[in-house]
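[step 3/7] fold_predict: job queued, chain A
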Amino acid sequence: MNRFVLVGALVFLMAGLSQAATGPPGLDLFVDVRMGNDLGSCRSAGNACRTIQAAVDRIPAVLTEDVVVHIAAGVYAEPILLIDRMAPRDHQIRLVGESQVSIVPPPGFEGNGITVRRAPRVVLENLGVEGFATGLLVRLSEVTVSNTRITGSTQIGIECEKGWVSLQAAGGGPGVSIVNDYSGIGITATCGCHVQFEGATWIAGNDTSLHSTFAGVIDLMGRADVTLAGSGSIAGSLPPPPTAL
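[step 4/7] structure written:
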């Protein structure tokens, strides 16, 4: 074999092995409520979308790589709907607030803040969801909530049906706080949903802090950094809560 052909084949092989080892680079999308434009590509901070939903709508229906939506500081008056995504290679979608991100209802809106339905692994990180009827609704999806506050919900902080929700404190962060306006339910798990506490969590200001029904499971995992303040009442079959900090 010609040595030049052999060298070329080796270079091509090594490049392929390197790409296989590192995996695809992933898709990064950017949102900036102050400087963005929903007609943009969302592919860079300088060409960001203005709304979170516009960036979410650009996520492919079938994922072939991880997707990260970078959300700049600001107040976003919009509900978020993330539905019908497939991930045959178990990729994930991350919505990450870079700092001081608040997602609030637009005038007159009385629905859910973030809805995740029939989606692959979704991570919500460093977000604030404020003033919706239900802060986060999860159906037929696996969602990780990390370093996020859900406040002022009039009905339910987190509602999960036929899915999986993990509450975490990534990187030693503050964890998850769910503080309603002294009404409704902090977290409800129903129809086989599994809610698991893996990091510091503060739940307060509810008629019922935790509620499970129809084979829903809420697992506190014996954590001492889970605080049930306010009424602290629990309905359904749950492990005993830890002592409040």
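[step 5/7] annotate
Residues 3-22 form the longest helix (20 residues).
The mean pLDDT is 86.
exit 0
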